[in-house]
Amino acid sequence: MPSQEIEEFAKALVRHVRDAAVESCDAELRQTSHSPVATRWRKASTADGKGIDPKVLIPDCVDQTIFYLLNAIDQELLQLLHKGSSGTTVDLPVDGHGELGGWFMASGGWRAKYSETRFHDDFADLA
Hints:
The protein has 127 residues and is mainly alpha-helical. The protein is 54% helix and 5% strand.
């Protein structure tokens, strides 16, 4: 049986990361949404209109989920420490200065620097 602290972490993770990402992706499916993601998904709709090309959908959903994880850390909803390869430990909510989500999603950010697979840079025109 997990400890109370593990259960608290699980509850926060599911609510602030998983559920937030699902709700965000659901919002992109609304016909009233005109975000870059919603527009891209509409363009990638299958001929029968019953689906979206997974090659377009998957990276967006994964990136939404990672963003909401980092956002939960930025907002101190998840208190996480990271021990680097040097042995130094950083307090992510404090040392990340509330910018982890932005550093991930920004044009030229972590996705562009470190990803070896496709992603959609909706902020490229802002650079």
